[in-house]
Amino acid sequence: MKIKIEIDGIKELDFPKGSTALEILFGLNSKDNKRPIAAKFNGILIDLNSPVQTDGNLKPIFFNDEEGKSIYWHSSSHIMAQAVERLFPDAKLGIGPAISDGFYYDFLTKETFTPDELIAVEKEMQKSRDRKQFPYSRKRMKSSRLNYSMK
Predict the structure, then answer these.
(1) pTM metric for this prediction
(2) In this predicted model, which residue has the larger pLDDT, 67 or 26?
(3) What is the CATH class of 67-142?
(4) pLDDT, tens only, 93-107
(5) For 45, left (φ over 0), alpha (ψ -120 to 50), or beta?
């Protein structure tokens, strides 16, 4: 079964029902020929692996977009927290929000991180590019289920 997708309000194309946002957007000429990092479907933020089931409007979100930077930095803070947890299992995680020009994360450790340790964290973050070793995906849950899964 085919669905009609309007790409960013400009062109309408037919795609198989269940195609992901990435499959739909793949190969389209975009701003600076860069790959989108997320999308909006009918105004609702979705990740690129989300299947699209109905007709609608799909708008790519790029890093250069204000919302794109926020998404990228939010995800980066999670990747950094995972890297710190792997390297420093006793570190306690605080908060790690995206801010106007990047992101940060608060950690509680016995000692302040040294410059060499920060380099090690950055290298560990680079390893997260290997999605098979460190799978990373967005999950939507009801708050009651989230509380249970965090115990």
Answers:
(1) 0.76
(2) 67
(3) alpha beta
(4) 998 888 888 998 999
(5) beta
